[in-house]
Amino acid sequence: MIYVAGAYSNKDPQIQEQNLFHTKSVVAVLYNRHKKLYISPVLHWASVASEFELPHTMEYWQPYNDQLLQQCEALYIIQSQQLPYSEGTKHEFDLAHKMEKLIYVVCPITFTIKYFTGSWDDLCHVRIDQDQVHLHQVVDHL
User: Fold this and answer.
1) Is 131 in contact with 112 (CB distance < 8 Å)?
2) Which residue of 49, 50, 79, 130 has the lowest C-beta tally within 10 Å?
3) Contact at 8 Å (CB) between 65 and 74?
4) CA triplet 50, 54, 58: central angle to 5 degrees?
5) Alpha-carbon distance 74 to 67, whole Å?
């Protein structure tokens, strides 16, 4: 099972919806290509939390997400300009690193997967352009 994480919450509802769309598209495309079990808590819980008025805070969902990540073989992080501001994704990155999980970066445009060996700050400086993916301190692994 592969845990898929990325920026979600944003004060701008359009950006939050775009973040959710990127997660949906990454999970759909990767499953279609590789037939592995990809799981992203936000895809399941965002709509449930809204419908049943559950909190949308990292603090509320962190214990659930931590337990889920423990069961996964790897963490895939969806790259975005909002990533440096995502406390939840930083926590998942730090926890995966501590648990010695494999960590990958996924481009939500090209769906390129790259094995990542750098720090959180390095990850936040990875640039994605429409025509080309620029990956700093990222190496091919798959």
Assistant:
1) no
2) 130
3) no
4) 100
5) 13
Instruction: Give which of 137, 73, 132, 76 is closest to 101, Cα–Cα.
Output: 73
Domain spans, the chain: 2-139
Q: What does the alpha-carbon distance between residue 108 and residue 60 come to, in Å, rounded to a whole number?
A: 27
**In a 10 Å sphere around its CB, with 0-12 CB exposed, 13-18 middle and 19+ buried, how is residue 108 labelled?**
buried
Provide the residue-wise pLDDT of the chain in tens; the chain has 142 residues.
999 999 998 899 999 999 999 999 999 999 999 999 999 999 989 899 989 999 988 899 999 999 999 999 999 999 988 889 899 999 999 999 999 999 999 999 888 888 998 999 988 876 654 444 433 333 333 3
Helix segments in 86-125, DSSP class H = 87-98, 120-124
Half-sphere exposure of 60 (CA within 13 A, CB side): 10
In the DSSP assignment, the letter for residue 57 is -
Amino acid making up residue 51: E
Domain 2-139, classified CATH 3.40.50.10400, yes or no:
yes
- Kindly list the distances between the CA atom of residue 109 and the CA atoms of 25, 83, 97, 113, in Å, as whole numbers in the listed order: 9, 15, 25, 11
